[in-house]
């Protein structure tokens, strides 16, 4: 193995880890040589009501595509996360909660969580929620968000969590697509000292004439702030749960029954409802949580992701709770009120495992090490990174300042669609290289292909695909199976296409280079450039817009918009600010363009197709090697755009 920038597995970690390198090699070989045996064995980590007799039943043939795992088995995800722990660890802490304001603290045992989930499940039933119904959850980072998810799972309802930073329009489109009858929210959320008007956003979403399915809204009183109330439709959380029984039998679900929907952005169209089912997802989330973080009973595990993203689903709720872990939920932002907050939380709660995102690490890094002068950090053992490529500089800072050079870093690559981590180091098995997600998890077969779909061997770079299924894989796009097949299985036939590019080095390590499609990743949040464009052109004064990502020091990628205004409109600074606010209102704060360049024309082919590669390069300030512009209808557009480019860093 080449030794440049190689961080060996610390000896004490290797000695006590669940798997060392030799075991990893053996288990990996077995997992791909005989997936049935491998997964049949490992699926036993979950309690099944009726055991499965068949393990894997999958086909990546785009003419006849199906993905089924353990499909004649039955189980309940909520029982696996709660009931089965009661006898041995009912009094252990399931959730440590810290408010945005650190003076607010709460601890919930497994027994208490079980009781709360049962009460809320009974309340949902009383509201008429049935097996298979989609329930939309728009909640802050409070214990009740987890309660709501597990209560849905308990009664066989399908939850669809919408990130609390999304706008009323974004909520509305998800509610319409899921045909939700019931919505769960809070009066307000609290983040970074500010109140987030969750209920008001819901009211606005539901006031749209095309939102017709919602019959009830359950509202948690979080801040006590004033809210509008629609009699008959709106109900307080405490009122529907107070009288409810603290036990609720679980619904027996088929392994392939839906567990949840989660909307995510693609290159085109509206966000799609990624559908995950029950058995395979839970086996995969729980197993990866245990192995990737080398989780040991009794350890305190903190994932900083919001519950509105897949990381919050798989590695804050389902994986760790299925493993009986103690999880920490922080309501606010880990660098508020100061960058010291992250270290304070780790020390206060003696966190052993920390899972966070490069964007946060870069933000902390920019503030300086001095904020960690009082940080002890001795409790920390393993640290993870997720959501976007981590630059080696940030990796080293994380390793040194937060991990005191003794905690292995697991840089975990995966996607909403994959349900769980696919490429990652294992703490006791994998020597790490800053910036590389390293090797595949058990059962995962990555490959790199050229643009024609030919598999490339050895050290090389290409499109990242997966050659076979794993249990946590999404099963379909909700309500649009054809879109599922088209998006993931038609680009390269017989393979799942990730949308990412990657490099493989001489040691077989994978280095994710980023998206190769029109998806951008802003602070680890995934956005389709088409979504931002359609928000922009919905403004009366915008004739045309093209949006691309560009390198951003803290966010990873920033949003760069080229906007052509309608004839006669003056391009003023006020209008630029108005358009930024407009997009924010249409989609949510995370989609606010960082830079808006006025463009009198866009680079188009003679047939009218926008040549985005020119726009990407100009936005990245890479103007020396733009490539052949001769196919453009008007090549002079390029010079004009270069002259007035905004990112000259
Ligand atoms: O481009 C990859 C990037 O995030 C995309 C998936 O985004 P999302 O579905 O929102 O899920 C994020 C959390 C799993 C991927 O296609 N990505 C995720 N993790 C990494 C990453 N890029 C590089 N390294 C990672 N560790």
How would you describe this protein?
With 649 residues, this protein is of the alpha/beta class. The protein has an 8-stranded mixed sheet with strand order 12-11-8-6-7-14-15-24, with helices on both faces. The mean pLDDT is 97. Adenosine-5'-monophosphate-propyl ester is lined by residues 264, 310-311, 386-389, 411-416, 437, 498-500, 512, 514-515, 521, 526.
> Which descriptor suits the 3D outline?
globular
Note the main sheet: 8 strands, mixed
Number of strands: 31
Helical stretch tally: 19
Helix content: 25-40%
Which radius of gyration do the C-alpha atoms yield? 24 Å
- State the strand order across the main sheet: 12-11-8-6-7-14-15-24
Residue windows where pLDDT falls under 50 for at least 5 positions: none
Q: Whole-Å distance between the termini?
A: 37 Å
The residue-averaged pLDDT reads: 97
Structural class: alpha/beta
Ligand types? adenosine-5'-monophosphate-propyl ester
What is the beta-strand fraction? 15-25%
InterPro entries: Ac_CoA_lig (IPR011904), ACAS_N (IPR032387), AMP-bd_C (IPR025110), AMP-bd_C_sf (IPR045851), AMP-binding_CS (IPR020845), AMP-dep_synth/lig_dom (IPR000873), ANL_N_sf (IPR042099)
Keywords: Acetylation, ATP-binding, Ligase, Magnesium, Metal-binding, Nucleotide-binding
Binding site for CoA: 191-194, 311, 335, 523, 584
Pfam families: ACAS_N, AMP-binding, AMP-binding_C
